[in-house]
Amino acid sequence: MANSTILRLERRIQAEHQEALAALEQAYGQLAEAILIAARKSGYLGNEPLGALSHILRPRLEDHQLSNAVRELWASFFESFRQDEQAFEAKDFLDRASNLNIALNEMEEGQDISSDFAIQMLQTLSEFWPDRQHALSERIDLLINNLKEEEQKRGSSDLASAHSSDEITNTQTVISATMAALGEGADDEAPLHKQLEKLLKYYRDLLSKLRDQSQTDKKNHELFRDSLRAAASGEWEKGQAPELIKDQKRIVDAVASLLKDLENLENDYAKAREEMAQLIAEKVHLENGMAERDKRLAQYEFGQEEDTEDERLALYRQIMAAQDAGADASDLIARVKQLERVFVMDDDQQSQLHKLLDRQLETISKSLADMRKILSIIDDTRRYRPRLLGGSPYKLKTLPGVLQALRDASRDVGTFVEKLRWAQGVQQLTKEFKGWKRVFKEMVKLVSAIREEEGSPAISSTISVDVSSGIAALPVLLSRDVDSIIRGRSANKYAQNLHSIFEEVIDAFHKGLEKSVGHSIDRMEAPKRESASSAVRRLNNELLQLATYMEEHFHEAAENGYELSKEEAVLLDKQTELLLAVRAVDGACDILAGVDNAPEASFTKVPSGKGRDTDKIRQALSERTAWLEDVARYRIEQPEF
């Protein structure tokens, strides 16, 4: 049973093989027939399929002939240009066919041109030929026209012919001389047009070279310009753009180096400015505190400090004796610290006091910054609240640093208070001018009359008292006129009349000036027995002193015609903001006054409410500033446990 099954399978496999072989044989026959039909179309006469396939695949003679014909036609077109046309007309066509020429040159020797490429070359030649034919036609037309013109000239008179001959000869001479000057061999036997053609060819070649050189120079210039821009903007790196000329590259590198040097200089300049600002701040701080400090040191040296110094020396001896004896000297040490400028407090106390004082300093700093925006008469207030602690001359993280900053901030507030009082004084002075006008006018009238009697005009009579500048300048000139009168022979004659009016003038001048400056001005005391002429001399000296004092105090206002600037006028409206800074200084003093061993604090109350008196504000601030200067010299020590 198994054997029969295997036999059936073998017969079935044989049958399938026979069927596949028959199908393959049929397909082979069809393929061979198709190959023979295709080969016989191209001239094959045999019956072998392999021979027919070889006949189909071999190169055709027609394709080779077509390739050679297209090559010859292509070459003959470009060889048809004359020598004088090579630089211009031929170059134009070569540029237009550059892609095809490159492809031809890349082909191997003997390689046939494909049909598609041959068609492309023929289409290109079909486009070139009308342009070439048109150019030849134009040249022929030009030659025909020239020929006609020559024939017309030949038909003219002999004189014209002779003249033309001379011109031709001259032209030939010029061409020959030009060719010789250019170093080209001149052929005098050659026709004139050949010589001219040779000369034109020289200039055409020269023009072509100049055009090429111009394009090269243009590209080089653009590259040089772009490189300079990159160097100027900081985008240049060494070794960039190697095609630059050596000198140009050196210039670009120098510009890039100059830019880096400039950046370094700017950084150095910024650092130098910061250092200079710190030095200036320290200098101003030292200058402002020098006079008052010397005064305070002198007070400590020659005043009450002598007693405390002796007492400290005695205590030092007692402490040393107690320590030698092994006794407790803590009470004696505490007494010494009370006599010295020392604040004894632990870290927590220092931190709490530092926070309280720093808040007051911040308030003062903000007010000063607002005032400084109006009138810049103090150093930059950012040193009190710097963004970086390195930008401040104070160690603001420490309690002594805050104390020093509070002292200097109080001085800056005082500067603005003084400026405010000065501006109020200018306004007050202009009001006083109106009251002085009457008494000065009467005095000038009397002096002028006396000077006329003596035969010389009065200088003061030339000044107009109707303007502020005139009244301000009048006292000095009036003093000169009075001095001339009292030095004359008739001084006693006019002394009594002068004294009665002069006393009134000095009283009005003195009182008005005191109101303007905001403090008392000492006057010269009159002796018990004084003659009228001596009294006039004394009053005249006092008049000159008061005039000098007014000029020194209000010289800035005098330069502006006793008119406040816009900034000074705005400052007058900021008295409330300035008072906030004064109260912040007062708050800092109140905080410090409660510290153990602090100096005695006895201050005038800071004015408040409407109608605040600037003089009282100035006095209150001056007391607190002096007290802060004393506190700023204190040391901070930790308590001993």
Helix-strand blueprint:
Blueprint (H helix, E strand, L loop, with lengths): L1 H40 L7 H9 L3 H19 L6 H11 L1 H9 L8 H40 L3 H24 L10 H41 L13 H57 L2 H21 L4 H10 L2 E3 L2 H28 L24 H56 L13 H19 L4 H27 L14 H22 L1 H5 L6 H7 L2 H19 L20 H18 L3 E3 L4
Helix pairs in contact: 1-2, 3-6, 7-8, 8-9, 10-11, 12-13, 12-19, 13-14, 13-15, 13-18, 13-19, 13-20, 14-16, 15-16, 19-20
Q: Which spans of ≥5 residues are poorly predicted at pLDDT below 50?
A: 295-307
The total count of strands amounts to 2
Query: Order of strands in the sheet with the most strands?
Result: 1-2
Radius of gyration: 58 Å
- Helix percentage: over 70%
The end-to-end span amounts to 123 Å
pLDDT average, as an integer?
75
